[in-house]
Design a protein that fits this description.
Largest sheet: 5 strands, antiparallel
Structural class: alpha+beta
Number of helices: 8
Number of strands: 10
Helix content: 40-55%
Order of helices and strands: HEEHHHHEEEEHEEHEEH
Shape: elongated
Oligomer: single chain
Length: 288
C-alpha cells in the first residue's frame, strides 16, 4: 500500500512539473495533457456538428450543397473558436499572456496567410451570391469545364479531357468569368458561312436551315435562323445561329458536325464556297 502511495505521489509530482509560464499562469505537464484531451473532444464534437448541419439540419431545404457545406464550415469554426476560449478559461490560463503571444505570431503568420484569407473570403462570396454553382459550364483564365466542387478555398473544374483543374476562388472574383449555364443550359452557337456571289441568298438560307433542323443536337423549340451579314471581298457572308443543350460541353464537336453537313449540302445543290480572288492588272510601260 505504501509502495503504491509512493509511486502515486511521484506521478502527481511529475504531472506538476512546470513547462512554460504565460503571464501569471504556469503551464505544467498536467495542464498540457488536460488541454490536449479537451481540444481533441472539441474537434470531435465539431466534426459531428458539421455533418449534422449538412445532412440533417439543412438537408430538407432547397439550399445548394455548396452553400450547406459553407454554412456548416462557418458554424464549426465559430464553435472551435468559442470552445477554445472556454477551454483556456477552465484551465486557468492567463489570456493576457496569450494575447501578447498571439499578436506576435499574428504579425508573422498574417503575411503568409494573406492569399489563403483572400481565397476564403472569395469562397464565402461565391457560395452566398452564387455567380457560379456546381454543374455550371464556365470559362475562366483560358480554363473551360464543368464545376464539380466549390470549397471555401478553391473550386474544382473538370475539363473535356477529364482533367481536374483546381482554381483559387479569387480568380472568380477578380477575373472575367464566362458562365455558359448561369440561367439554363441552352446555348446559342454562331456558324459563319461564306458563299460565292453567283449563289442565290434565299437558296443558301433554305439549305442552312435544313442542315440545322436535321441535326439531332439542335433544339427544335428554339428555332435556328440565318443572318445575311454582308458582302465580303470574295463571298456573301452568312451566319447560321442554332441553339443546343446537349453540346454545351462540346461546342467544337457541334460546329464541326454542322460544317461537315453544310459542305455536303452545298455540294449537292451546286453552291460554291469561294476562295479569295484577286484581279491583277498588267500595265505596259509606254515610254519604251
Amino acid at each position: 500500500m505504501e509502495f503504491a502511495q509512493h509511486y502515486s505521489n511521484q506521478f502527481q509530482e511529475f504531472l506538476q512539473i512546470p513547462l512554460l509560464k504565460l503571464g501569471n499562469t504556469v503551464l505544467t505537464i498536467w495542464t498540457v495533457i488536460y488541454l490536449l484531451i479537451l481540444v481533441i473532444l472539441l474537434l470531435f464534437v465539431t466534426g459531428r456538428l458539421k455533418r449534422w448541419v449538412v445532412r440533417r439540419l439543412l438537408a430538407g431545404s432547397n439550399v445548394d450543397i455548396g452553400v450547406r457545406e459553407a454554412v456548416a464550415s462557418i458554424v464549426s469554426y465559430l464553435v472551435i473558436f468559442v470552445g477554445f476560449l472556454i477551454i483556456l478559461q477552465t484551465t486557468g490560463i492567463d489570456l493576457r499572456g496569450l494575447t501578447i503571444l498571439a499578436g506576435a505570431l499574428g504579425i508573422g503568420v498574417g503575411f503568409g496567410l494573406q492569399d489563403i484569407t483572400t481565397n476564403f473570403i472569395s469562397g464565402l462570396i461565391i457560395l452566398l451570391e452564387r455567380p457560379i454553382k456546381v454543374g455550371d459550364r464556365i470559362e475562366v483564365e483560358k480554363t473551360v469545364g464543368d464545376i464539380t466542387k466549390i470549397s471555401l478555398r478553391a473550386t474544382t473544374i473538370i475539363t473535356n479531357d477529364n482533367i481536374a483543374v483546381i482554381v483559387p476562388n479569387t480568380q472568380f472574383i477578380s477575373s472575367t468569368v464566362i458562365n455558359w449555364s448561369h440561367t439554363d443550359r441552352d446555348v446559342r452557337f454562331n456558324i459563319p458561312v461564306g458563299v460565292s456571289y453567283q449563289s442565290d441568298p434565299e437558296k443558301v438560307r433554305e439549305l442552312l436551315l435544313e442542315v440545322a433542323e436535321s441535326h439531332s443536337g439542335v433544339l427544335k423549340e428554339s428555332k435556328p435562323d440565318v443572318l445575311f451579314d454582308g458582302f465580303g471581298d470574295s463571298s456573301l457572308n452568312f451566319t447560321l445561329r442554332v441553339w443546343s443543350r446537349l453540346y454545351i460541353t462540346r461546342p467544337g464537336v457541334l460546329r464541326s458536325e454542322l460544317n461537315f453537313a453544310i459542305c455536303k449540302k452545298f455540294r449537292e445543290n451546286g453552291i460554291e464556297i469561294p476562295y479569295p480572288q484577286r484581279d491583277i492588272h498588267i500595265r505596259s510601260d509606254s515610254t519604251k
